[in-house]
């Protein structure tokens, strides 16, 4: 059986594509624009199976858009700053740039072999000074707008990587990158004020619902964590007024004590002098716990009595004030009113410390004081003054808030869980923060014409993490004249989190060579928002939230005309092996390069696309790339069998095959648009089988319908198996290349079903369903209806007064 030489074919077409450059996006094209984006990789090695999967899926859509006649922007670059390169540089005693560039070169070569339809004229690396100059420029714009600021606080600290982490980078108490247990450290750090946009970020999600995966939208909603409640002011025996944030002001009569976050400055301020030492001792323990641990409900409660009292603003009752770590310093106001009867953590604390419990909502369940189980459901208010007897939670809340507002003792309030984004890192391989610290002028922005602030040359052991930035060691670089007063000053020695780099890269692709500004707003507005963003769900709340935040700021700056950067999103599953995540320790890794050598690019791509819905994990152990290869060869053989000439008049061709072709092409479009790529491939397989049958035992290879079908196969396969598609197209007598020849034309008439179902009603009741031709005449349909046995029975000899016929779907018999 004839087959093609995989390696030779791949080399041949790579040359042709290099020369014809069919995927270069033209900014000035009159065609409608589409922007297909896939998350750019960290260049921490060569491409692996995960990349192979996401690129194969993503490329189906990009290539489909080209075939549908859109001008498509499908760029690729590298997220090249960050820890992997820096750690490798330390290991190998080199500069991170060496490692980065070597990996990028390898990855580009692999992407080209893998035939992803990227426009390579637009590529860049975030570690290029031409790029990070604008990252720094954007930082300064944020700074000018009060959206970048420095503050001293207890931050998440990774003892392994010796750097701070954003809240989003701490997963279940561990560093998301290295897995080390994260601790807290008091440091001065740079933040972006993402909290200013909390409500906006929430509102925007409504717009994305339906085109973004539900789990991502939900994850972002939860992360932003909006809640509604009230601020309530308690006066302390020390004379201080302190506010608490509560979502249940209606339970105020049940507040039997107050708790202040042990590590909040407030605790040390209000503590009775006799209790100060106890608080200090307790704090040593508190600093060891992560926020996640602290909030865990099943954790034994600990705390310190601060030796003071607070006055309940509605009941006038005096209650004790405690400090504990289950209250977080940076959430709400850092202090709570404890309502143990209706909040489990408060109840656990009350029981541990012997504090009183008072039920204020009777839910019909047993009293929490006795059961140890707090009740959070609805019920009748009790022990609650003016609320007693009321049942309705909403009006209970309203009543208390009105009262507090009238007395100036509180007000309705909205709270967000979202914290400001900590962006400074004490590492080398990132964009330096473009600020100069002057003893006279304070924080001074580096003037725009002095950007970029380039990294000084450091390598190997100089980069070893030591808790402060390695840049501090480069004194020649650090010591500068203050841009304002000219006096001695020092550069900020921190670098920015890599998530800053990736928050705006999608804009840069629209005008990647722009050197007067980060991007050309007209081009950005022409290409964006991105029509489809494909990537891993692990970025649900990090990258995808930060990029949305940047877009809103850029919109407020008047630089972009939209507020959401990514209109639609698709998350691929993982490629696993033998039921498990691939890992070095399990030795179950699958080497992409080997798979490509054995089966060829097309077979690997086809296997990944055909494996199942894109969101599902793919177990490589259950895949058969050799089966994919056999299918591709079967498809390819069709192109050698066709004997009619290009341009043959297909209208005279075999009708059955023509119908199958038309239906396949039509369905393939719908399926790609619904991201059901695997089903699309299945349809192409059916078409290949039908064509083979037509050649061998049907209309024969000379029938123009066979050419039509085979050409359709080539075009549909160009979305998944580009090499095979090109080979087929060439064998069918066409000039290269197939990738932008256009989606096959479908004669709508061929899509009409062979039979439709007509419903027959007698006295308004359905009595029969008839299979009729779609073009059945009204007279024929009426006759058929009246002749039907069930209809005859329903009529029971009654006189037919009127027959309403709506061919081909309905006959209504009135008696
Ligand atoms: C009294 C109360 C009674 C509460 C009740 C709940 C149930 P969300 O929805 O997450 O915003 N809280 C407030 N600040 C806190 C902090 N810094 N650390 C830990 N917990 C804090 O939760 C708001 C509720 O979480 C608040 O409402 C408060 O407890 C607690 F039956 O106040 B509540």
From TrEMBL:
Which CDD domains does this entry report, sorted A to Z?
A: Anticodon_Ia_Leu_BEm, LeuRS_core
Q: Which Gene3D superfamilies match?
A: 3.10.20.590, HUPs (3.40.50.620), Isoleucyl-tRNA Synthetase, Domain 1 (1.10.730.10)
Instruction: Give the residue interval(s) assigned to the motif 'HIGH' region.
Output: 41-51
Name the UniProt key words of this record, in alphabetical order.
Aminoacyl-tRNA synthetase, ATP-binding, Cytoplasm, Ligase, Nucleotide-binding, Protein biosynthesis
Record's subcellular location:
Cytoplasm
The Aminoacyl-tRNA synthetase class Ia domain, residue ranges:
419-619
Q: Which domain of life is it from?
A: Bacteria
Q: Which residues form the Methionyl/Leucyl tRNA synthetase domain?
A: 38-182
Q: Which family does it belong to?
A: Belongs to the class-I aminoacyl-tRNA synthetase family.
What region holds the Methionyl/Valyl/Leucyl/Isoleucyl-tRNA synthetase anticodon-binding domain?
Answer: 657-776
Protein name in the entry: Leucine--tRNA ligase
List the HAMAP family hit by this protein, alphabetically: Leu_tRNA_synth_B
| Positions of the Leucyl-tRNA synthetase editing domain | 221-404
Record-level Gene Ontology MF annotations: ligase activity
- Where ATP binds, per the record, is at 584
Report if keyword Nucleotide-binding is assigned.
Answer: yes
Mainly localized where?
cytoplasm
Query: What EC class is this?
Result: ligase
Q: Which residues form the signal peptide?
A: none
Q: Could you say which EC number(s) this protein's record lists?
A: 6.1.1.4
**Pfam families recorded for this chain?**
Anticodon_1 (PF08264), tRNA-synt_1 (PF00133), tRNA-synt_1_2 (PF13603), tRNA-synt_1g (PF09334)
Known catalysed reaction(s)? Answer: tRNA(Leu) + L-leucine + ATP = L-leucyl-tRNA(Leu) + AMP + diphosphate
Motif 'KMSKS' region: where? Answer: 581-585
């Amino acid at each position: 059986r004839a087959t093609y030489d995989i390696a030779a074919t791949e080399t041949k077409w790579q040359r042709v594509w290099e020369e014809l450059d069919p995927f270069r996006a033209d900014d000035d094209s009159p065609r409608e624009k589409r922007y297909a984006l896939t998350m750019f990789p960290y260049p921490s090695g060569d491409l692996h199976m995960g990349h192979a999967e996401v690129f194969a899926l993503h490329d189906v859509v990009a290539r489909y858009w080209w075939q549908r006649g859109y001008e498509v922007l499908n760029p690729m670059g590298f997220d090249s700053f960050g820890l992997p390169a820096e750690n490798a540089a330390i290991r190998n005693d080199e500069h991170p740039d060496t490692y980065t560039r070597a990996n990028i070169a390898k990855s580009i070569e692999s992407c080209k072999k893998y035939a992803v339809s990227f426009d390579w004229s637009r590529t860049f690396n975030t570690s290029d000074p031409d790029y990070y100059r604008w990252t720094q420029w954007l930082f300064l714009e944020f700074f000018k707008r009060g959206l970048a600021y420095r503050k001293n606080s207890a931050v998440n600290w990774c003892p392994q990587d010796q750097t701070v982490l954003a809240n989003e980078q701490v997963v279940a108490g561990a560093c998301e990158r290295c897995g080390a247990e994260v601790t807290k450290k008091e440091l001065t750090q740079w933040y972006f004020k993402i909290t200013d946009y909390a409500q906006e970020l929430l509102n925007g999600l409504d717009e994305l619902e339906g085109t973004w995966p539900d789990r991502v939208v939900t994850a972002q909603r939860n992360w932003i964590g909006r809640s509604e409640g009230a601020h309530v002011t308690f006066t302390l025996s020390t004379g201080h007024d302190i506010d608490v944030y509560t979502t249940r002001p209606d339970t105020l009569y049940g507040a039997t004590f107050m708790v202040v976050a042990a590590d909040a400055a407030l605790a040390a301020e209000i503590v009775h002098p006799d209790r100060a030492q106890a608080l200090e001792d307790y704090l040593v323990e508190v600093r060891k716990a992560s926020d996640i641990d602290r909030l865990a409900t099943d954790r034994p409660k600990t705390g310190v009595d601060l030796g003071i009292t607070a006055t309940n603003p509605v009941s006038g009752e005096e209650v004790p004030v405690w400090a504990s770590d289950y209250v977080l310093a940076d959430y709400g106001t850092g202090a709570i009113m404890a309502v143990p009867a209706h909040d489990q953590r408060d109840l656990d604390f009350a029981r541990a410390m012997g504090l009183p419990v008072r039920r204020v909502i009777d839910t019909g369940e047993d009293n929490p004081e006795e059961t140890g189980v707090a009740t959070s459901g609805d019920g009748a208010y009790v022990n609650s003054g003016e609320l007693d007897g009321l049942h309705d939670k909403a009006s209970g809340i309203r009543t208390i808030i009105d009262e507090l507002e009238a007395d100036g003792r509180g007000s309705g309030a909205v709270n967000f869980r979202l914290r400001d984004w900590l962006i400074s890192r004490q590492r080398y391989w990132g964009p330096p923060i473009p600020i100069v610290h002057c003893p006279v002028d304070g924080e001074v922005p580096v003037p725009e014409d002095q950007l970029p602030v380039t990294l000084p040359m450091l390598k190997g052991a100089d980069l070893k993490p030591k808790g402060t930035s390695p840049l501090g060691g480069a004194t020649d670089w650090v010591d500068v004249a203050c841009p304002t007063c000219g006096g001695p000053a020092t550069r900020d020695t921190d670098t920015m989190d890599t998530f800053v780099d990736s928050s705006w890269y999608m804009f840069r692709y629209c005008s990647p060579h722009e050197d007067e500004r980060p991007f050309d707003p007209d081009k950005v507005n022409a290409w964006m928002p991105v029509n489809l963003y494909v990537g891993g769900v692990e970025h649900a709340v990090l990258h995808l939230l930060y990029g949305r935040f940047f877009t809103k700021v850029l919109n407020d700056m008047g630089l972009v005309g939209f507020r959401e950067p990514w209109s639609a999103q698709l998350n691929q599953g993982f490629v696993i092996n033998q039921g498990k995540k691939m890992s070095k320790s399990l030795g179950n890794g699958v080497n992409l390069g080997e798979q490509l050598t054995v089966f060829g690019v097309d077979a690997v791509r086809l296997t990944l696309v055909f494996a199942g819905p894109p969101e599902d994990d793919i177990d490589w152990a259950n895949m058969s790339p050799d089966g994919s290869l056999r299918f591709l060869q079967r498809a390819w053989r069709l192109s050698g069998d066709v004997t009619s000439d290009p341009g043959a008049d297909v209208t005279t061709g075999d009708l059955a095959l023509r119908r199958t072709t038309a239906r396949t092409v039509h369905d393939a479009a719908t399926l790609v648009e619904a991201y059901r790529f695997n089903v699309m491939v299945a349809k192409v397989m059916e078409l290949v089988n039908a064509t083979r049958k037509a050649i061998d035992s049907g209309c024969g290879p000379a029938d123009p319908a066979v050419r039509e079908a085979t050409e359709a196969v080539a075009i549909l396969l160009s979305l998944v198996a580009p090499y095979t598609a090109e080979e087929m197209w060439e064998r069918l007598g066409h000039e290269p290349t197939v990738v932008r020849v256009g989606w096959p034309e479908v004669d709508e008439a061929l899509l009409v079903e062979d039979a439709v179902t007509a419903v027959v009603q007698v006295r308004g009741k359905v009595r029969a369903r008839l299979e009729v031709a779609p073009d059945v005449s009204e007279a024929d349909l009426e006759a058929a209806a009246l002749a039907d046995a069930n209809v005859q029975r329903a009529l029971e000899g009654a006189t037919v007064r009127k027959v309403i016929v709506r061919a081909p779907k309905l006959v209504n018999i009135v008696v």
